[in-house]
Every structure is written in C-alpha cells, then in structure tokens.
Backbone:
C-alpha cells in the first residue's frame, strides 16, 4: 500500500507533545467526575442531622448525581459531536460550580437533590465524556497508556477529596464547604481549556481505525476533498463528525458485544466496593481498620491503572486487548468468589490488594476497549450510548446486593453473586470477541483483496 | 396499801431499767456491726452478711400475720481505682406468712433480665463490677395473695465521666450543645464552668443565652445565639457525689459567618489565572499550530505511519 503522502500523514494523531497536557486535563476531569459523588458522602452524616432526614433520603443525593452523570452521556455526546470537547468541558465545569454554590443556600433536601444531584451530575457528565473522547483524538500508538493515566485520576482524587472535604467541613461548616467546593470544581474549566481542539483524520483513516467497517470508495472521495485548501480542512474538522448521535452504532457488532458484556458486568462491579467496609465491620474489626481497607484498595488502584495502560500498550497485548479486558473481568470475579475464604484482617487486606489491582485493570481498559472496537470517529457517540445503558446496572447493583445481605444475613452470598456475575460477563466477552476478531479478519482480508485491485488501478492512472 | 404502791413503783422502775438496758444492748450491737460493713476498713473482703435483719415494723400483738423478713447483704462502695473483686449480693427470705411465688432482682427500678427464680435464698453475682454497675439494687419476692416484699442494697460509686463531646464547631448565631454522661451512684450534682484566664469560672449568664439541663447521670449545656467574641473556649463539666468527683473539658469553636470567603476568593483567583495563562500560551502558539497540522507534521509522522500500519495490520 502506498497512499498519497500529504493527506493521511497530516491527520495522524500526535501521540505526544501537547497530548500529555490533554491527558493531564482529562486526569482532572475524570478525577472529579468519578470521585466527587463518592467524596460527598463525608458530609452526609452531618447534613442528615441538620436536615432531620433519614439516611436513605440523604444517600439519594449521591445516587441522583451518579444517575445524572451516566444519563447525561448521550447529551454530552451530541454536544461534543457538534462543538468539540473543549467548550463542553468548560460548560460542565461551570454547571458543577453553579450547582454547588446554589446548593449551599438550600434549606430543604429537595433543593439539594436538584442542585447537587441533577445540575451537578449533568455538569460532571459534560466533563467525563469529552475527556475520554479527546484522548482518542490525540493518541493512537500510546492510547492505552494515555487512557490508563487519565483514568488514574479517579482514585487519586478520591484519596485527596475525602480528607479535604472533612477538613473543609470542620473549618467552615457544610454551607461554606459547598461554596468552596463549587469554586474547586471550576478547575474543570482549567482542565477543559487544556483540551485544544485537534483536526481528526478524514474518513481515509477510518479504514484502519474502525477495523474495516467503511468501504474503500469513500477514501477516494475524501482524499480528493482533502487535497484542496487548508481552510476547508478546518471546517472539515467539525463536519467530519456526525451532527447528531450516531445511532447506526446499534448495528455495529463490536459495540453490541461490548454493551451486553458491560451491562452484565456492572451489576456486580460496584457492590463489593460499597460493602467492603460493612463486611469488615461485620467480622468484628473497628471502624478505622475497615475504612483503611478501602484506602488500601484505592492506593493500589492508583498504581494499577497506569501500569495496566502500559501493559496494554505492549505489542503482545495491544492487538488482543479485548482478551486482556475479559481476563481482567474474570480475575475480578475470581477475587470476589475467593473473598469469603479470607479470614482475619490479613486475609481481608490481601483481598483488598488483589481487588484494587483488578478494579484498576478493568477501569483502565473500560474506554480503551470501546475505542478499539468502534474507532475514535464514532467514539463520542458510542460512549454516550454506552453510559446511558450502563446507568441501570450501576445504580441497581449495590441496592440488590444490599437486599441479598438483608435476606440472607450474610455477606458471603453477595460476594458469590458478584463473583459469578463478573466471571460470566468475562467469559461472554471472551467468547464473543473470539468470534468478533475472526469476523474482522475475514472482512479485512476481503477488503485488502479489493484494495489491492483498486490501488493497482490508481497507480496505473497516476503513472499514465 | 403503801407497801403495795411501793412494790408497783419498784417493779415499773426495774422494768423500765431492764427495757433501757436491752435497748442499749440492741443499739450497741447495731453500732458494733456498722464499722464491719464499711469496705474502707477492710477493702479486700466482701462484707459477710450479718445476722441483723433490717426488719420491718415490730409487730403489735393484734396485727395481721407477721410481714416477711429478708436478710440482705450490706451496702457496698466500689473502690475508685476500678479494680474491684467480684461482688455477690445476697437476699434470704427468713420468714414469711406463706410460700413465696418468685424472686427476682431490680436495678434502679427496672427488672434485671434472667434473674427470676423460685429460691428463697437468691444471689446476684457481679464478676467485674465497674462504675456502671453502681446503683440501687432490690431483691423482690412475690406472693400469691399478698403484696411483694423487697430489700434494698446500694452499690455506691464515685462519678466517672464516660461520654462527652470533645469539641464542637458551630457558626455564629447558631446553637451549641455540650453534654456529659457519667456513671456513679448516688446521682451526681453537675456544674459547668468555663476556662477564663487560667481558672475555671462559673458561667456568666447575664445574657441569658446559657441553659443547663440535668437528669440523673446526664447533663446538657446549650448556648443559643453564639457570639464569636465571648463564647469560644473550653468548658468543663463537673460531677460530684458524696463519694467522689470527676470532670472533663469540651472545646467550643465558633466560626465566623464569612470565614469561607477568603479561601473561595483564593480558589477563584487560581482558576482565573490558570485559564488566562493557558489561553495566552495558546494564542501565542496559534500561528504555529495550524502549520503543525500541515507540512511540518508530515516529516515527523513518517515513522508514526509505519508503526501505525504495523499495529493496525496485526489488529
């Protein structure tokens, strides 16, 4: 293959340079998105006393925030498709800030639900999707590493936000803290301003990115377009995207496999994290030791994510990254299945370490695999659709786990259920990806056959 | 006639004399047993149950059947060093008009679980008595056709404060609540003091904002409409009863209403400065950037292209 030099080369992602600044910006955005709802729980006990509400009413704040964050996916995808990542992230940061500031003036629980839950949650979703999307635009070769580094933002921010929140609450009370947190969330705008827009590859690059879905003839057309003026290319930056959500993704085989596998997996993904501390308490350990287990997990998670990204970047794993993802999920499931056998604090600590590694591996690969299946062009729509479908199992998982614990009075069944669900999801993804890879090989060979023919024609024409 | 009168006189005097003698004898026996029941003199031995029974009224000849009499152990005082040997409270129903139905123990007016039995000689065993075990214990005997009989044994202990709020942070104008909880019997008298120039002084309630609420072993100090100048500081709650005294300190901090304003402005300033720096940096590089996406890139991406193709083929 000897394609025309100027067009495709111009549009390969930089894989470095300003890309690392973008990774840092994404690190901040993703960190806030995932860690903020969890770190807010520090305030709940005291807000509960002040508002005179029950614990479940207060816990709804976090749930609404998470739900809005996942449900806002398609909306932020549409906006990213239309306007690019930077304006959306800045708007998201401003929304979060306004949400928290108005919440600090509230006097009722409903006020908190709306300001923190809905407005804050949507603001965070405008942070999450574009950050993940823009990494795909800036990186190709080092993309798994970049993804791993960016996703490491979540545990880092969780470990720092929780003590900061406690300190703020002691110093300033909950109203002052919310005000200051609103200002801290404006740092997302700083992260957003780092996300300089970049012109993506035209559809010519799509052949290799999306593993063979578009057909060859379009390459010729877009090459002809691109060989024109520079200004046209700038306009082409936005017009190359789908203006609305790319719903044809639902016909994409890889995307469907990903959705089904992940939806099943998320049922058992977050519940063990939520119940780790109560499980340790039920074994008779004191509150601080139980909370320390979570810290161990978070600390290990912090390092597991970039390391997984590094591993996934190697030339042995990168081509088979879907298998690596399935392996990570199965490993996660096995950890949970073996957890009831852990006895004593040492056993639980060992479980926390292994769980931290497993959790980090899955999170680091979560978006990387989707990008690998769908390609950076359609990724923004894909991630929006994926998050709104995953919204259901993410929110239902912990309450179902809680119901299991209440019915059987033993945490053992919760861990068995989560482990079984994860192992099943992992095996499903593994088997389906074997099938998918085979189909992709077949399609690629077909196209290469066609491509060789049309290239032979081109060279004949150009020489003529 | 006179001789008879004289004889009657002598008889009454001697009866009176014997009566006084007996009374004296009885009361001196009471006195001699009292010091034995004081653990201060024999701290390591639980006092032996005495044979003297705090019987109820001496029956008059024509009253209904004798009231039940119970032998019970003496009142106990727990040592202040909290290392007390096991205590056994004993009650023995020595005489009653009918057979009793049940016996059980009560503490501070509430029945103690699993002490119901049918024995006349009932015991309550405390393996490691602590401050919270102090109180007023009663052994109760119930009868079918008569009211129940009981005897009281007090376990006294000095107060020991077991619960308090170490510190409280509140905003100006809000209400603060400090509390202290203690063990000990008899229930202590509570006093609250505030640290002022190195001494704990009684609280000055000229502003009428301080309210103290005491109930047995619990006390609460509430301060309404907190004032940032006079209210912050260390408050001491003091519990005193006839045996001992105990006190503990809580710290009250009052936050200024606008304390959060400075950090807020600081964070806002930081955000604005960073955004300005990034935007300015970008504007200065902008002319280069567009070229970056153009020919310049072609040189550097030659290698990338090959690497990418290799990657993609193996995909």
Residues:
């Amino acid at each position: 293959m000897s394609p025309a030099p100027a067009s495709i080369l111009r549009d390969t992602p930089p894989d470095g340079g300003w890309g690392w600044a973008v990774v840092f910006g994404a690190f901040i955005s993703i960190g806030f998105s995932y860690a903020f709802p969890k770190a807010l729980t520090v305030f709940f006990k005291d807000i509960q006393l002040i508002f005179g509400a029950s614990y479940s009413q207060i816990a709804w704040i976090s749930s609404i925030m998470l739900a809005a964050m996942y449900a806002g996916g398609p909306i932020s995808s549409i906006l990213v498709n239309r306007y690019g990542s930077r304006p959306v992230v800045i708007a998201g940061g401003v929304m979060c800030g306004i949400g928290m500031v108005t919440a600090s003036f509230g006097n009722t629980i409903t006020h908190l639900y709306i300001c923190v839950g809905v407005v804050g949650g949507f603001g965070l979703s405008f942070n999450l999707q574009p950050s993940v999307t823009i990494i795909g635009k800036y990186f190709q070769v080092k993309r798994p590493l970049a993804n791993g580094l960016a996703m490491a933002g979540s545990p880092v921010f969780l470990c720092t936000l929780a003590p900061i929140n406690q300190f703020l609450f002691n110093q300033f009370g909950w109203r002052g803290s919310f005000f200051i947190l609103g200002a801290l969330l404006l740092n997302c705008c700083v992260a957003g301003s780092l996300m300089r827009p970049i012109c993506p590859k035209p559809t010519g690059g799509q052949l290799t990115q999306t593993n063979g879905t578009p057909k060859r003839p379009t390459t010729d057309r877009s090459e002809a377009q691109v060989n024109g003026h520079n200004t046209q290319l700038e306009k082409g930056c936005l017009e190359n995207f789908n203006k609305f959500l790319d719903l044809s993704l639902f016909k994409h085989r890889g995307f469907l496999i990903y959705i089904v596998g992940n939806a099943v997996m998320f049922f058992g993904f977050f519940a063990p994290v939520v119940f780790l501390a109560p499980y340790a308490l039920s074994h008779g350990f004191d509150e601080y030791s139980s909370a320390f287990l979570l810290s161990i997990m978070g600390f290990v998670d912090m390092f597991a994510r970039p390391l997984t990204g590094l591993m996934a970047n190697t030339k042995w794993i990168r081509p088979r990254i879907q298998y690596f993802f399935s392996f990570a999920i199965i490993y996660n499931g096995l950890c949970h299945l073996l957890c009831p056998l852990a006895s004593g604090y040492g056993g639980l600590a060992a479980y926390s370490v292994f769980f931290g590694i497993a959790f980090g591996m899955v999170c680091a690969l979560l978006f990387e695999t989707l990008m690998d299946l769908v390609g950076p062009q359609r990724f923004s729509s894909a991630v929006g659709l994926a998050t709104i479908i995953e919204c259901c199992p993410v929110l239902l998982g912990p309450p179902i786990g809680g119901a299991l614990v209440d019915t059987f009075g033993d945490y053992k069944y919760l861990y068995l259920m989560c482990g079984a669900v994860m192992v099943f999801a992992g095996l499903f993804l593994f088997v389906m990806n074997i099938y998918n890879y085979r189909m992709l090989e077949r399609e690629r060979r077909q196209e290469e056959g066609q491509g060789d023919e049309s290239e032979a024609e081109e060279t004949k024409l150009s020489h003529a | 006639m006179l001789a008879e009168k004289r004889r009657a006189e002598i008889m009454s005097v001697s009866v009176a004399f014997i009566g006084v003698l007996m009374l004296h004898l009885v009361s001196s026996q009471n006195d001699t047993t009292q010091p034995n029941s004081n653990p201060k003199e024999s701290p390591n031995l639980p006092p032996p149950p005495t044979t003297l029974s705090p019987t109820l009224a001496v029956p008059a000849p024509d009253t209904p059947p004798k009231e039940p009499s119970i032998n019970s152990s003496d009142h106990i005082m727990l040592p202040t060093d909290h290392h007390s040997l096991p205590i056994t409270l004993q009650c023995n129903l020595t005489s009653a008009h009918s057979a009793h139905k049940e016996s059980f123990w009560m503490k501070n007016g509430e029945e103690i679980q699993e002490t119901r039995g049918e024995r006349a000689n009932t015991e309550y065993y405390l393996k490691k008595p602590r401050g919270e075990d102090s109180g007023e214990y009663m052994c109760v005997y119930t009868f079918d056709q008569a009211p129940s009989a009981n005897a009281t044994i007090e376990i006294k202990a000095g107060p020991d404060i077991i619960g308090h709020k170490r510190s409280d942070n509140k905003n100006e104008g809000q209400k603060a609540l400090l509390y202290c909880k203690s063990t000990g019997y008899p229930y202590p008298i509570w006093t609250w003091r505030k640290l002022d120039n190195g001494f704990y002084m009684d609280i000055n309630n000229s502003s009428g904002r301080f309210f103290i609420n005491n109930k047995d072993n619990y006390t609460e100090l509430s301060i309404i409409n907190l004032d940032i100048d006079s209210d912050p500081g260390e408050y001491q709650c003091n519990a005193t009863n006839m045996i001992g005294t105990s006190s503990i300190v809580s710290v009250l901090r009052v936050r200024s209403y606008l304390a959060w304003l400075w950090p807020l402005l600081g964070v806002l300033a930081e955000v604005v400065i960073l955004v300005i720096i990034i935007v300015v940096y970008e504007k200065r590089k902008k002319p280069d950037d567009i070229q970056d996406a153009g020919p310049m890139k072609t040189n550097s991406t030659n290698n990338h292209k090959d690497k990418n193709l290799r990657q993609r083929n193996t995909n």
